[in-house]
Design goal:
The complex is a heterodimer. Chain A is mostly helical. Chain A has helices at 2-17, 23-40, 47-60, 75-93, 104-124, 128-137, 141-167, 187-211, 215-234, 238-247, 252-273, 289-305, 309-318, 321-344, 356-386. A four-stranded mixed β-sheet of chain B has the order 1-2-4-3, covered by helices on one side. Classes of the chains: A mainly alpha, B alpha+beta. Chain A binds chain B through residues 20, 96, 98, 100-103, 106, 161-162, 165, 170, 172-180, 235, 237, 239, 243, 247-250, 252, 303, 306, 315, 318, 320, 322-323, 392, and chain B through 12-20, 22-24, 26-27, 41, 43-46, 48-49, 53-54, 57, 68-71.
């Protein structure tokens, strides 16, 4: 009897953690998580936390006057940390964690890409998540402006990579030493146990936050970890949604992101329409210069770095050192550029807050966003056959 | 079966992360003759899914993979 139970458990574990989850499933789960997170307390975000970390560094160095948000108690920081931690735990459970070294050129691309993402996300008031996915879910016109920017930026970034590949056929880094049996320990057997420990730790931390009257934050930590796990298992990459049509002609990622966004937006529109959350929430003053220019710059950065906002944090959790480099500059440059825009007043010239229902009502807003997403998915699918946009 | 494969060319993509392994594979396979086999070393977990998709789209045959010390060897036959 117990034998059958163990058999079934092993099967389930195998399916969940030894196989990549389909992209469409990742998209659906992310869409649902996005709605639940918003309903719980506030929308999912990634750059916010990254910026808080950068702010905290400069604050500690005495560069910034005034107060900055705390990495320990600010919701954005908790969400971003949660993503890394959840992806880390998920990678361990899947025996995919490994400190992956990179050749020097790749590390430089990580640093440069991260910097561009820091600038772009500051301009757009968010990365692929906050500036595009959540902004559009929240019915902010700036989200669509960023979407156009991301398409343009991804194209430019890809052009650069192709040029670089011709000019600098780089020598790869030496293989990770020893493989899975370093130091006499068979890491492939041990990793899953650490993975379990990570998720238990997450629950414990959430309980501790609750004891200190920070229950909302505790929940956000768990939501962040859930995002990290889903994204890692499905290898859900927003960069692919913008880059693949040009690079490989594949339309799978555009379709998955479009589906995911429609689900998330449907949930947000109900929540806002019912007055359960304020209409103005997450409708940043970035239409259209901030959204568009931010999207272009962020798009270039994410392709060069090999990860967007969520993608960078996920891969940090998986052990890709190039993305650690990207995260470093993403947070430091992101913090500095945001501060610069603030101090110089530049921030006042990059757009207004444009809530789509104020212009066209809730019904047409829903129709328009769905139409844009379906159109995007449809063109990407058409491109799969015709390769009209495929560059390479 | 994967053990018996004799590769005509080898592409070392260890340490490279997405999208470099696929970009380099596409470029390398473009230089090869039909029927030739390309062996790719990669440390990126995504390669395992990207490569079969790429093969299918490009009309090539994905032959399989073999785990090695700290990386994976992938085999693809130009179609």
């Amino acid at each position: 009897m117990a034998g059958i139970f163990i058999e079934k458990f092993k099967e389930g574990y195998d399916r969940a953690f030894n196989n990549q989850w389909p992209l469409w499933l990742g998209g659906i789960l992310i869409g649902l998580l996005s709605i639940l997170t918003f309903a719980w307390s506030r929308p999912w975000g990634v750059f916010g936390g990254i910026k808080v970390w950068g702010d905290w560094v400069f604050q500690s160095l005495g560069l910034y006057q005034g107060r900055v948000l705390s990495p320990v108690t600010s919701s954005s920081s908790i969400l971003s940390f949660g993503l890394i931690f959840g992806a880390f735990g998920s990678a361990l459970l899947s025996r995919q964690f490994s400190l992956r070294k990179s050749p020097k050129l790749e590390l430089v691309k990580g640093l440069v890409g991260g910097s561009l993402m820091g600038v772009g996300a500051s301009l757009a008031a968010g990365c692929n998540v906050g500036g595009f996915y959540i902004a559009t879910s929240a019915l902010s016109f700036s989200g669509l402006a960023m979407m156009i920017g991301l398409i343009i930026g991804a194209y430019i970034g890809l052009r650069y990579l192709l040029w670089e590949m011709e000019k600098f056929p780089a020598a790869p880094a030496p293989a990770a030493s020893g493989g899975s049996k370093e130091g006499g320990i068979d890491w492939s057997k041990v990793q899953p146990w650490f993975g379990v420990a990570v998720f238990i730790a997450g629950i414990v931390i959430a309980i501790v936050y609750s004891q200190w009257a920070y229950t909302a934050l505790g929940g956000l930590l768990l939501f962040g970890m859930a995002f990290g796990l889903v994204i890692q298992r499905a290898r859900f990459c927003f960069v692919r949604a913008f880059r693949d049509p040009f690079m490989t002609g594949e339309g799978e990622a555009p379709r998955a992101v479009a589906l995911s966004l429609i689900i998330s937006m449907a949930g947000f529109i109900i929540i806002k329409y019912m007055g359960f959350r304020p209409e103005g929430m997450y409708v940043p003053p970035r239409f259209w210069i901030g959204g568009l220019s931010g999207g272009i710059i962020f798009g270039m950065g994410m392709v060069v770095a090999g990860g967007c906002g969520s993608g960078t944090l996920w891969r940090v959790g998986e052990g890709h050192l190039k993305l650690w480099a990207a995260l470093l500059t993403f947070s430091l440059v992101g913090s500095l550029w945001s501060k610069f825009m603030d101090v110089t007043g530049l921030i006042n010239y990059i757009g207004e807050s444009l809530y789509m229902p104020n212009i066209m009502g809730y019904l047409w807003t829903f129709v328009l966003i769905v139409a844009v997403m379906i159109a995007y998915a449809w063109v990407a699918t058409w491109n799969e056959e015709t390769d009209k946009f495929t560059v390479f | 079966m994967v053990d018996d494969i004799k590769a005509d060319e080898t592409l070392d993509c260890r340490g490279l992360s997405c999208p470099m392994p696929i970009l380099k594979t596409k470029k390398e396979i473009g230089k090869m003759a039909k029927g030739q086999i390309l062996e790719i070393f990669s440390t990126d977990p995504g390669t395992g899914n990207d490569l079969p998709s790429f093969a299918k789209r490009g009309g090539h045959e994905y032959l399989g993979n073999k785990e090695d010390q700290g990386f994976v060897r992938y085999y693809i036959k130009k179609g």
